[in-house]
UniProtKB/TrEMBL annotation:
InterPro entries attached to this UniProt entry: BPD_transp_1_N, MetI-like, MetI-like_sf
Lineage top rank: taxon: Eukaryota
PROSITE patterns membership: ABC_TM1 (PS50928)
Organism field: Geodia barretti
Membrane topology: Multi-pass membrane protein
Main location as per UniProt: membrane
A GO CC term assigned to this protein in UniProt: plasma membrane
Domain ABC transmembrane type-1: 86-290
Entries under PANTHER family matching the protein: DIPEPTIDE TRANSPORT SYSTEM PERMEASE PROTEIN DPPB-RELATED (PTHR43163:SF6)
Keyword Membrane among record annotations: yes
Protein name per the record: Peptide permease protein BRA0408/BS1330_II0405
Keyword annotations: Cell membrane, Membrane, Signal, Transmembrane, Transmembrane helix, Transport
Length: 290
């Protein structure tokens, strides 16, 4: 895990530094600023040091938990910015993961129990189609249909900083990204549940439950589905990994003010301390879940 995080930090640092200019360029290029002020700005951000020295400073600060001050949210520390954004990402993606898991498990056990019917073909084809959909295009289509054309949900913006009607407004903004994540990810759980159920329903205890005259629904839910759940629950961990990896895309498209959108804006503005902090959070989540 330590080596993985080291590689993440190193690659992130040099990829950001490979971009032309730096964060201070937004101020240094201002012709109205005198030269001494420009030098003070670069020194304040630590950009006047050689590249290797900047790298060692960031490496040391990262492993000691001192990410410094965010350039774009100056003078707020990086940890304060991340502490504000990480819960928003967790709320969104844990909700979407739970919804996709429940939908996939419900459909999977249903199509396995009624194998060969029209419902199985429709659910399988629909799930496979959505699973292979291009996420940004599908997200934009959801916005165009449900927010722009039907006007059921807000197009953009959020009210995390407001107090009045906060919970209801957050829920309104969560519906589309959660629905998008659920629709593009439930197929994996559905197909895995189906395969696991097909193996389970051949077991002796399922046949014994049927021989006792128990209702079909009780046999399916209490005897077959419960025992088929083990490999499906294991796959839930991997779905969390892919959900976190896709946070930049989903949060960027839906303007959700979480870690992914923060990382995207930080990369654009070359806010290196914030980029390092956000990437370390994503890297730690991935290493911990795997």
């Amino acid at each position: 895990m330590g080596l993985t995080l080291f590689l993440i930090i190193t690659l992130t640092f040099f990829l950001v530094e490979a971009q032309p200019g730096d964060y201070a360029s937004f101020y240094v290029l201002n012709p109205d600023l005198p030269p001494d002020v420009k030098e003070k700005i670069r020194a304040a951000f630590g950009l006047d040091k050689p590249l290797w020295q900047q790298y060692l400073i960031h490496l040391k600060n990262t492993f000691t938990g001192n990410f410094g001050v965010s350039f774009g949210h100056f003078p707020r520390p990086v940890m304060d910015v991340l502490a504000e954004r990480i819960p928003r990402t967790l709320v969104l993606f844990l909700t979407a993961t739970a919804a996709s898991f429940y939908l996939g498990f419900f459909l999977g056990k249903a199509i396995a129990w009624r194998r060969g019917g029209l419902f199985e073909y429709v659910a399988t084809i629909s799930g496979a189609t959505l699973f292979t959909a291009f996420t940004p295009a599908f997200a934009l289509m959801m916005i165009w249909i449900f927010a722009f054309r039907l006007d059921w949900f807000p197009l953009w913006g959020n009210s995390w900083t407001r107090c009045g009607g906060l919970a209801l407004d957050i829920l309104k903004h969560m519906v589309l990204p959660v629905a998008t994540l659920t629709l593009i990810s439930f197929a994996g759980t559905m197909l895995l549940t189906r395969n696991s159920m097909l193996e389970t329903i051949r077991e002796d205890y399922v046949m014994a439950a049927r021989a006792k005259g128990l209702p079909e629904r009780q046999v399916r839910d209490r005897h077959a589905a419960r025992n088929a759940m083990l490999p499906v629950v294991t796959s839930l961990v991997y779905s969390l990994i892919f959900a976190i990896d896709g946070s930049v895309i989903i949060e960027g498209v839906f303007s959700w003010p979480g870690t992914g959108m923060t990382l995207l804006s930080a990369v654009r503005s070359e806010d290196l301390p914030l980029v390092m902090g956000a990437m370390l959070f994503i890297g730690c989540c991935r290493c911990w879940l795997t």
